[in-house]
Design brief:
There is one protein chain. This protein has about 350 residues and is an alpha/beta fold. About 30% of the residues lie in helices and about 25% in strands. The protein has helices at about 40-45, 95-100, 125-130, 140, 145-160, 175-185, 195-205, 220-225, 245-250, 275-280, 295-305, 325-330; strands at about 1-10, 10-15, 25-35, 55-60, 60-70, 80-85, 90, 110, 120, 130, 165-170, 190-195, 210, 235-240, 255-260, 285, 315-320, 340. β15, α10 and β16 form a beta-alpha-beta unit. The chain binds zinc ion (2 copies).
């Protein structure tokens, strides 16, 4: 089969790869939809991800498809069934799994290889994070389950209430998903971000105000131009993964408010925070990471109810053969939110 293989920094090649034999407990999925993701872009730039992927390795992790092979001992699935498969599963046994923090599992098992015709799903992910789709759910919508599950976790950590004034900084796929879910909960959402297409999507998804940061760097100044009273947000969600924006998020939250540092920054970076403001304004800092089997299921519910649809997040389609060029254009600033990869071409 054809598959995308990452060899190192900015080095992804489309190669002929043997489909591995199925091991006991595994399922083979014929990929129906694979989506690009900001994490892929990070990995593409760096050439690896300490936890998720070490080159050379098949690449891509947001997928949905149809069961096309069943390993020995697998119960309850049949060939042809339509499923989503998460990109990881926790062990269920370590300290963190036992304390309802499965996203922090010491032994998270990751799955890569969505940019390919087929993928073999390891037994643990078959057991814990493979879910059957309703007949009417299409593969492209379903493939949003994994990133959305991370956002579901983030929203739950923010304890949002109807009427909350929420600032989302960043209008990439993650910022847009926060916007849609917060709006769905009845929050009053402001989005600060860049790129006309992305900001238009933010409006369609329910953002009440837009702070257009195109060509600007200072988020605090940009937001205060719009809101004279400055720190009026109950909750600020950082979805860019830049240390200076983490600092801006703290400056923009109200007394007693909550900041969620959702965007992971490059390793070995640090931030400087005003201790007086944190303490005397009683600010809560959260940093949500990854997803759990429960948030995967909740995310799929939002998709199957129609709250989140691929048409709002996927603004292009490309054949597998063009994936390396697409990743390079993303490094160079192509602001497509997500691209659907046709793995058959
Ligand atoms: Zn992803
Ligand atoms: Zn564990």
């Amino acid at each position: 089969m054809k598959a995308a293989v990452i060899h190192g920094s900015r080095d992804v090649r489309i190669e002929d790869v043997e489909i591995p034999d199925l091991k006991p407990g595994e399922l083979r999925i014929k990929i129906g939809a694979a989506l690009t993701c900001g994490t892929d872009l990070k990995v593409f730039k760096r050439g690896y991800h300490a936890k998720m992927i070490q080159p050379p390795a098949v690449f891509g992790h947001e997928l949905a498809g149809r069961i096309s092979g069943i390993g020995d001992g697998v119960q309850g699935w049949s060939s042809g069934e339509r499923v989503i498969v998460a990109n990881s599963a926790p062990c269920g046994e370590c300290f963190f799994c036992q304390h309802e923090q499965e996203a922090l599992c010491d032994d998270l098992l990751f799955l890569n290889g969505a940019y390919a015709e087929y993928i073999n799903v390891p037994a643990r992910i078959v057991e814990k994070n493979t879910i059957q789709l309703k007949d009417e759910t299409n593969f492209a919508d379903a493939a949003l389950t994994e990133p959305l599950a991370c956002v579901v976790q983030g929203v739950s950590d923010c304890r949002l209430w109807p009427g909350d004034r929420v600032l989302v900084i960043g209008a990439g796929p993650i910022g847009l998903m926060f916007t849609a879910l917060a709006h769905n909960l009845g929050c009053h959402v402001t989005v600060a971000g860049r790129g006309e297409e992305r900001l238009d999507a933010a409006k369609r998804l329910g953002a009440y105000h837009i702070v257009n940061m195109t060509g600007k760097d200072d988020v605090v100044a940009g937001v205060r131009e719009r809101y004279a009273d400055g720190n009026s947000f109950d909750v600020v969600i950082e979805a860019t993964g830049k240390p200076e924006v983490w600092e801006a998020a703290v400056a923009l939250v109200r007394k007693g408010g909550l900041v969620n540092f959702f965007g992971g920054c490059p390793s070995d970076t640090s931030v400087s925070l005003d201790t007086g403001r944190l303490h005397y304004s009683s600010i809560t800092l959260k940093a949500s990471f990854h997803h759990t089997p429960d948030s995967i299921r909740k995310a799929l519910e939002f998709i199957e109810k129609g709250v989140i649809r691929a048409s709002e997040f996927v603004n292009g389609e490309a054949p597998l053969s063009e994936l390396p060029a697409l990743l390079n254009s993303m490094v160079e600033g192509n602001r497509a939110v997500k691209t659907l990869i046709d793995v058959t071409r």
